[in-house]
Design a protein that fits this description.
about 500 residues; alpha+beta; Arc Repressor Mutant, subunit A; four-stranded mixed beta sheet; 23 helices
Length: about 500
Amino acid sequence: MVLELRQQLRLTQQLVMTPQLQQAIKLLQLSRLELLDVINEEMVENPVLEESSDEQPDSADDANAKESESDSPAEAEEIKPVTVEETAREDIDWSNYLGEYSATGSVHYEPEDHETPEYENFLARRQSLVDHLLWQLLLSNPDKKEEKIGNAIIGNVDRDGYLHATVGELAALTGEDTLRVEAALKKMQSFDPIGVCARDLKECLLIQTKYLELEGTLVVHIIENHFKHLENKNYKAISQALGVPLNDVFEAVEIITSMEPRPGREFNEEDPVYISPDVFVYKMDDEFVIVLNEDGMPKLRVSSFYKDTLNKGAAVSSNARDYIQSKLRSAVWLIRSIHQRQRTIYKVVESIIGFQGEFFENGIGYLKPMVLRDIAEDIGMHESTVSRVTTNKYVHTPQGTFELKFFFNSSINRLDGDSIASASVKEKILQLIQAENPAKPYSDRKMVEILRNSNISVARRTVAKYREMLRVLPSNKRKKVRGGSVVCKNQSPL
């Protein structure tokens, strides 16, 4: 067997991801605010890029014309001197006025080295639960040991106001006796908001009953001895166990449900996140008009100064020429990528309107099942491109503001062979729950039957999954004996 080296020519094709192509793909999946950050960063790094302004300077002819207009004969006349012909009034007591004016009084002089205040110090900040509890702790004049224990307790309180540490753990953390820790905890449980520093929901409600002066009442007996029945809304079992009328149990339950299950709710530091839509869809006459949101988007252009510099020829060094050409290519590619991104978004939204026209007209109940392949085939692009375009982008429609991904839904079969979007089924389930009798809420199996009567074939586990996604509790925990609304998972199950 002989081994030898040979040279062969072979022609192959392969896709190479150049930096420019990677940048174009990256721009597709950026939201509007992220794109603004990228543009501002590129304008700082690339001197060839500049923002074009709508105001154009006047030409030389316009300037000469303005000069000729200003040299009119009327303005060329000699300006007459101004003379003061008015005299002072004689009925004013000038001596008294001058005496009061020259009288000495308290005078305040600003020092020369006076510094202007920092405006950051005037920014308003919402008070947190930790700050509120620390303020009350220091206001109670604690000794060093109580302050140490109080700081440990506050450090283990979550955002809802509950304490996630036992007395033994706090004693080991602070090195103090458990009796002293228990006394400090009891003292801090009387702080505002009422129910704070409780270790569970049951203790939180009992603390609030002390504030409401309900000790020894039916409310306290229900919370202490029948809390499980209270969670499951088994009011008949509570009535039989305590030997009281059912109406008294209802009245006690109404008091309990009016309490605050999360005392730290009012000190929530989460700021609302405002969505800035990338696209606006308006209905004008009988058609929908697409408007891209370019508010605050700078209009980029290549600086004419650097163009003229390249045309100077030998007057520019080779290193400077190479640098300018490199930045010039980068600037031109960025401008083209941004324009291509805007055109692609417009095409995708236009195709979505074509598929989901009934939704834009009548609402979410008319949303059709659709996948990325439908849009990709319609506009002649790859599915990955459509996926990048619809990521982190929102559209404002006559029916509300939605993410572009919202329009892509799986299909659920109807009894007649047609299909319906899963989002429409979720909306129908939510409408059923909102319209149900609070005393007899619909079970998942009952909603399956109602949907089947509406020509929608869906399994019970699918209804349960959609109900979980809508953050709605099951029927046994939605039951309200005396009215009430739908109870969601982020609310109290009581």
